């Protein structure tokens, strides 16, 4: 079925066989898919080359490897006809490339985003083989690519690089005006990305960003991530006595900061799991009926989802499904409590101070600053006399909701339906992807998030993997998306 080494892609089913007939009767899209299919072995070889580079951004010892990975990406993009260059920053270099036809006012200019850096591979003793020597392994559902970065994010962003390649090799150029931005510090906080966007906003501005750092609903069902939760993170410090006290001499008479914080944290939720901070739900929308109906119809099991981590029952708002709780509803969680004696054995002490770290996941149009202020007012009202409270503010970012009425969204969804034979799930994401907010606030453009990762890809963990079928479907899907956006599907 596929040319190349028989060990590379054998066993990958040809779910979408090529159109019958001679080459002349095939559409551009059919020809591009045929090119992608016949070149899958070489696409895999290129991915393996990139995976062998240990581009760990968090460790200065790998700075040279990060630069090597960035230059490798530049060379690949230049090789398919894009004007590609390595851009210096205060940290790891950026990769920027441009190409495609001149804007015509009808076909959107798109910015493709990914990152070439990876997480450290530690603990190395839990890897079955060298994390930077990629390999194909057999699994019950098919072959898997195992290596650090296979799913996060080298295997993912290489799907759209290889889709661009298929278009260029088939038709002579990519089908739409495109900018490619591949950064090298995503795994270490993207500290230089914001300034880079600001300094190059005119060059990087596009009609739409396409992000490939997300996942599918399951192996057979594609997904488009349409909701990203925001974040507020605050640290609370309560101080009572001027020093730690003997609990026998002062117990009962002296205020105990640990007890005070415990009561405050317990009061943050009511008996139904709702957050009790006044005004907390301002700006929280209800799900569109069609999205709720789709989510309710998914084969999602609370028992399977929670059972995988040793739990049984959802703990959020009782009148909301688990998918709503993790995708479209705001949350409040204590992430850490510090105070008193925590060593071995016992020490009968009343701590002078105690602290807690509290995070809020935000949705809709919740205002991070208002949430922070309301939370702090909630705490102050519950701190008794003889005590003082301090706050340390950390992260604060709004939620993001993708405009599902954009015509590009319908085209992307249609492309995924054509590839998988079923409509994509319009998914939420419980976490945050800060770059999407940066694209909106700095470059003024919306994003469409399409990824091919799976929940069991073990990203950031030993033996990270990416299904070979995900890589194949990803290349074909992006080829279809590019064609649909350019009205050449």
TrEMBL record:
GO terms for biological process: proteolysis. One of its GO terms (molecular function) is metal ion binding. Residues 237-385 form the Peptidase M20 dimerisation domain. Residues 1-26 are annotated as: Disordered. The keyword Hydrolase applies. Signal peptide: none annotated. InterPro entries: Cyt/Met_Dipeptidase, Peptidase_M20, Peptidase_M20_dimer. The keyword Protease applies. PANTHER family: BETA-ALA-HIS DIPEPTIDASE, SUCCINYL-DIAMINOPIMELATE DESUCCINYLASE. This is Acetylornithine deacetylase/Succinyl-diaminopimelate desuccinylase. It comes from Lutibaculum baratangense AMV1.
């Amino acid at each position: 079925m596929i040319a190349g080494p028989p060990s590379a892609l054998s066993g990958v089913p040809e779910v979408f066989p090529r159109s019958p007939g001679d080459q002349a009767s095939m559409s551009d899209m059919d020809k591009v898919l045929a090119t992608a299919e016949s070149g899958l072995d070489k696409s895999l070889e290129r991915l393996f080359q990139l995976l062998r580079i240990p581009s760990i951004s968090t460790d200065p010892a790998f700075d040279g490897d990060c630069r090597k990975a960035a230059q490798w990406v530049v060379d690949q993009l230049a090789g398919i006809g894009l004007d590609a260059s390595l851009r210096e920053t205060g940290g790891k270099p950026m990769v920027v490339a441009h190409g495609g036809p001149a804007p015509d006012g009808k076909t959107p200019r798109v910015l493709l985003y990914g990152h070439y850096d990876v997480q450290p591979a530690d603990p190395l003793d839990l890897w079955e083989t060298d994390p930077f020597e990629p390999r194909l392994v057999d699994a019950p559902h098919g072959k898997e690519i195992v290596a650090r970065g296979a799913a996060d994010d080298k295997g993912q962003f290489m799907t759209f690089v290889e889709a661009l390649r298929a278009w260029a090799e088939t038709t002579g150029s990519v089908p739409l005006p495109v900018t490619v931005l591949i950064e090298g510090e995503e795994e270490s906080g993207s500290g230089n990305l914001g300034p880079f966007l600001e300094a190059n906003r005119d060059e990087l501005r596009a009609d739409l960003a396409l992000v490939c750092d997300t996942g599918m609903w399951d192996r057979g069902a594609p997904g488009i991530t349409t909701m990203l939760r925001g974040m507020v993170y605050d640290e609370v410090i309560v101080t009572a006595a001027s020093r730690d006290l003997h609990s026998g001499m002062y117990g009962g008479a002296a205020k105990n900061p640990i007890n005070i914080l415990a009561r405050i944290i317990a009061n943050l939720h009511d008996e139904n799991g709702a957050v009790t901070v006044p005004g907390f739900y301002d700006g929280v929308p209800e799900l569109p009926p069609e999205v709720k109906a789709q989510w309710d119809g998914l084969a999602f099991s609370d028992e399977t989802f929670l059972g995988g981590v040793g739990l049984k029952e959802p703990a959020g708002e009782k009148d909301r499904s688990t998918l709503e709780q993790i995708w479209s509803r705001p949350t409040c969680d204590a992430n850490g409590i510090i105070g008193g004696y925590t060593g071995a054995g016992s020490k009968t002490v009343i701590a002078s101070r105690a602290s807690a770290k509290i995070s809020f996941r935000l949705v809709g149009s919740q205002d991070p600053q208002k949430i922070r202020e309301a939370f702090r007012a909630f705490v102050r009202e519950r701190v008794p006399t003889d005590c003082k409270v301090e706050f340390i503010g950390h992260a604060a970012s709004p939620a993001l909701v993708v405009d599902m009425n954009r015509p590009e969204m319908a085209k992307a969804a249609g492309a995924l339906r054509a590839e998988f034979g079923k409509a994509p799930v319009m998914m939420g994401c419980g976490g945050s992807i800060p770059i999407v907010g940066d694209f909106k606030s700095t470059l003024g453009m919306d994003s469409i998030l399409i990824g091919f990762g799976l929940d069991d890809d073990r990203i950031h963990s030993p033996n990270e993997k990416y299904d070979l079928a995900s890589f194949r479907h990803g290349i074909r899907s992006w080829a279809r998306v590019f064609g649909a956006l350019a009205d050449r599907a």
